[in-house]
Amino acid sequence: MRTTWLSFLIRCVLGAIVLIGLFCLWAYAEFGSLAVAAAYLRGERLMIRPVVFDLGELREGEQRELSFEATNLGGVPVRIVGSRSNCSCVVTNELPMTVPAGTSRQVNVFVKGAFPDGTAVFSRDVVFFSDVRAQPICRTTIIGKAVGPLEGE
User: Fold this and answer.
1) How many whole angstroms separate alpha carbon 64 and alpha carbon 110?
2) How many CB atoms neighbour CB 78 within 10 A?
3) What's the pTM value of the predicted model, to 2 decimals?
4) Is the confidence at residue 153, as pLDDT, over 60?
């Protein structure tokens, strides 16, 4: 009886390993990564990456251009209609834009070092709005360390 039960358990475990392996192969073949496949299975059709963008050090008054990748995982074009941030120091100029089905487009965001509260470490949230009913928003966060003003100021 023990041998039969143990044999059954081993077969179940091996079957599960094979199924997981097949899922991983499918995910990489179809989406290029497990993370993107998982997002698709959760119903996400628009991804903005990176989810967290680490600027490193940013000086007061310095402006940087950051590039995010907007990926449309769905079968129809997606329109990114705008964005909002918790700081006026973050601006996107290229919206609205359309991301064709199954492709990616670059979205540039401009960040200006503005630290009125004197914080040393900052975090700025950016929300992108889309025309996808099931997922009207995508979030990303910009983090970094505030340092002194630009030289000569």
Assistant:
1) 6
2) 23
3) 0.75
4) no
